[in-house]
Structure formats: C-alpha cells, structure tokens
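A.,

Following up on our hallway conversation. Structure tokens first:
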C-alpha cells in the first residue's frame, strides 16, 4: 500500500494535486482542484483514470483547467464519475457542462454525480450526457461525518474552512490494515491457514470459537493476541482559507501524525494583514500549523505571483525556520528573474 503525491502546475501559476493510492491490487487516482494547465503534465490515460475530482472551492484559479478533465472523461462509462466541492458546486458545474453544443449524444450512458458538501451534509445532483446535461436531478442528500468517502483501500475526509466563502480541506487516509503477528502465531504452535481470515475480520463476541488444528479456540482471545494494526499513511490538501486560532486548533488535531501536508503558501509573513484580508495563509502560519500537528513533511504550493522567485525562496526559509521539513515540490525549479 502506498500514497503518492504529485503537485501539478508551476510555481506562481495555478496548481492542483494528484494523489495516487496503490493498494497492490488496485490504483486509485484522486485529483484535488483543477487549475489552468495543471492536467497538461499528465498522460491522457492518467486523466482518464482519475476516480474522483475534489474541489476546494470554485474560484477561477482552481477550476480553469476543468475543460481538460472533462474533454477526457465527459462520456466515460468505464468507471463512476464523481465530483465534490462546497455548496453550489453542482450549480456552477452545470454551467460548465452546458458550455458546449451536445447534439450527437442520444443513447450515451455517461452519468455525472456532483456532491455539494456542507458542514454536516452531502447533497448529490446527477447530470446525464444523453440529456445534454440539461436537467440537474437531485438524487438525495445524507448526513455526513468528517469522512465523505470510505472505501476498502482509502477514505477521504472533508473540513469546511473560511475563505470568505466555504473552502474544503481534504485528508486522504489509507484504510486500516490488520496484520497477523507471525512470531506470536509460531509461539502458540499454530499453523497459518484460512482460519486467519476470521482473526483478521470483525471483532468477535467473547464466546465465539473457531477450530484450529482440531482444537476449538476463542476467536476474541486469538484476535487480541495475534492482530497488529499497520500504521496508516495520510495526505492532506489545504488551500485558500484563513488560518485563525480556531482553524489552527481544529486542523492541529485533524492533521496529527499525517505524513504529508500539501498546503498553500500565498503570502510572506510580512504581508500577514493582506493574507488575512484575502482569507489566505502566510508562510509562517503554514509552518506553525505543521509544527503544531507534528506532521511528517510540509509541501508548499499555490505561491502568489506578486512575489519574485527570490522572495519565494525567502518564504521557504521562513517556513523552514519554524518547521524544517518544509519544502517545495521536488520538480519545481525557478531561476531568478
Ligand atoms: Zn480562492
Ligand atoms: Zn486560490
């Protein structure tokens, strides 16, 4: 199992994040935002392989590359089509869907589900290619907890932050994996076999028994003794919101132990007032959050083009002074101009 990240787009331009979950049996591709030109770096087949598109919010610099995504996938039936974002995502995407002429689509089966997230609900709207995306169909809503998506291999959590408008922070976590401690198994003198499936499975009632090597044994006792839970990796995607004390406290808890945090770095600390006015973060605030949560590494992206490359380097140094494991995406390089 692994979680890999790829920051898309260049420094000072629109950015996005691709997270690839590789379970060994399956690959899942999750795209976070879709700014101008961001998908140009990906092979067509990889764009076709994106399972979910998550928008933080629908400001132009996060959605301008949507046409490239939709060009690749508008008629996709090989997998389900899901798009997520804050309130009004379905309404705004409805306009995007209708921004083209569709006259040869009768009978085509592609269907799109757009999920609007509020603090405690998910409201889903379906759009059909065969209808030229004309009629949004409300397919219902449900209450939600932090996790909006829970699969066999991974889950995605969503947190509504304040950008003057709701902006969604996302966390992708590997699903818990239960392993069997083979040393303890050997100590008990038990041979591995299909019975271990039950030991890995749901927690047993105290009286449930299983026959192992001809002897009845208590399942719960074996589970308590033999099971180990592998550490779960996680990646967070944070962009475009005000990091006030309340947000910092909330995310400090949510991000505890997260291996990789990809976070906006719009403003230098000297411009904190401006950052606050625009509901953004500074390099120092971002690094303080990473330190507070004790994350593994902090990848800074979404740099403002108001600064020159020399100042971007200064921003990185500001962040590293507080949180040494801060970096820019590996492939970014910028010459002084
Ligand atoms: Zn924004
Ligand atoms: Zn932005």
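Then the amino acids I'd put at each of the 337 positions:
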């Amino acid at each position: 199992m692994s979680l890999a990240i790829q920051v898309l787009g260049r420094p000072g331009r629109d950015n996005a994040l691709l997270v690839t979950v590789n379970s060994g049996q399956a690959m899942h591709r999750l795209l976070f935002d879709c700014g101008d030109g961001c998908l140009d770096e990906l092979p067509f087949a990889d764009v076709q392989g994106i399972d979910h598109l998550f928008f933080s919010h629908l400001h132009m610099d996060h959605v301008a590359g949507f046409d490239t995504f939709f060009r690749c996938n508008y008629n996709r039936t090989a997998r389900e089509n899901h798009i997520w974002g804050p309130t009004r995502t379905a309404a705004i995407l409805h306009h995007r869907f209708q921004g083209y002429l569709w006259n040869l689509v009768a009978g085509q089966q592609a269907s799109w589900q757009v999920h609007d997230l509020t603090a405690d609900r998910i409201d889903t709207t379906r759009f059909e290619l065969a209808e030229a995306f004309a009629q949004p169909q409300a397919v219902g809503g449900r209450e939600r907890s932090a996790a909006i998506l829970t699969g066999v291999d991974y889950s995605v959590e969503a947190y509504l932050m304040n950008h003057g408008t709701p902006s969604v922070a996302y966390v992708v976590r590997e699903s818990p994996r239960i392993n069997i401690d083979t040393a303890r198994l050997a100590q008990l003198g038990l041979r591995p076999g299909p019975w271990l499936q039950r030991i890995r499975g749901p927690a047993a009632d105290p009286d449930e028994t299983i026959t192992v090597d001809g002897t009845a044994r208590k399942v719960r006792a074996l589970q308590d003794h033999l099971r180990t839970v592998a550490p779960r990796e996680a990646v967070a995607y944070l962009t475009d919101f005000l990091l006030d004390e309340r947000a910092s406290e909330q995310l400090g808890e949510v991000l505890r132990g997260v291996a990789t945090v990809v976070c906006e770095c719009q403003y230098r600390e000297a411009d904190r007032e401006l950052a606050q006015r625009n509901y953004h973060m500074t390099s120092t605030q971002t690094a303080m959050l990473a330190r507070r949560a004790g994350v593994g590494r902090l990848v800074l992206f979404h740099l403002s083009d108001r600064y020159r490359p020399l100042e971007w380097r200064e921003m990185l140094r500001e962040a590293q002074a507080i949180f040494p494991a801060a970096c820019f995406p590996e492939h970014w390089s910028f010459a002084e101009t």
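The chain has three domains: 1-177+230-241, 178-229, 246-324. Curious whether your intuition agrees with the design.

B.
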